Please model this.
Amino acid sequence: MICRMRLLYIEDNEKLARNTSASLRDAGFVVDAVHTAADSLHSAKSFEYDAVILDLGLPDSDGLDLLPRIKQVTPQTPVIICTARDALEERIKGLNAGSDDYLVKPFAVAELVARAHAVLRRPGGTLGMTLACGNVTFETADRSLAIEGTACAFSKRELALLELFLRRSERVITKDVIENALYGFDDAATPNAIEVLTHRVRKKLAEKGASIEIHNLRGIGYILRERVS
Model:
């Protein structure tokens, strides 16, 4: 399963954070890795995340104290605790504090990916939805897109852009919104990356007979509309 969701990964062990982030990106996630509670709160206030992965042993705060503060900023965002604290009472504390899942270190990244998909499929989560506009249908669970019922191949980033547009059809989307949704701290967009990506998606939609179009609103952003016959 390929996903293009944005994760906030809070882990004070920089080597572990670096290696795990790389594996999560290989699984299709956009990952912003931070190492302190202060940076975590700043990121949570500045960007929209689909899920948070939280270590409890942070240098400037205990993760259990940080958790309710994150939930206050973004109450609907699921949080997965990843920690070496394996005692039953610690797990109960974490779940009672508001976490949506609890994973004990050391863990296999494949299990973390599976758990992230699981919390995102829950009611109100980002996955498990069918998005449709005109003759285009996008299944967010398995990241498949069909035009007039025929499966069409798009790259991971092209699908991420299409998902963003389908979720906000008939609404203007600025370049800043696109950049925040598709690119992480360590994957910054080049100056013309969004224009190139949007042009490529627009061309593919037209070639494959889609009844939707992406319009460029000069100096403002973009909007997805169903084509008028």
Observations:
- The chain has eight helices and eleven strands.
- The mean pLDDT is 88.
- The longest helix spans residues 193-207.
